[in-house]
Design goal:
mainly alpha; 2 helices; elongated; Aminotransferase class-III
Length: 67
């Protein structure tokens, strides 16, 4: 685990912005394609997807910081 402040490169910040943008598009599509789903169900799906992305990116950042 990293201690202190985590500094991200420009490329990493751009990658996070791309992920955020794609997740927002995915959320919009999901609401359009599945209007019968409750907002809670949709939010849980998006939360799970977001947390998986955050975990993957965090792992990569930690590995690059340790290298």
């Amino acid at each position: 685990m990293l201690c202190g402040r985590l500094v991200m490169s420009r490329e990493q910040l751009l990658e996070l912005e791309d992920v955020k943008r794609s997740l927002l598009v995915q959320a919009y599509r999901m609401k359009q394609e599945h209007p019968h789903m409750s907002p809670v169900g949709i939010e849980m799906e998006m939360y799970s997807a977001l947390m998986a992305e955050v975990k993957e990116i965090t792992t990569r950042i930690q590995m690059s910081a340790e290298a």
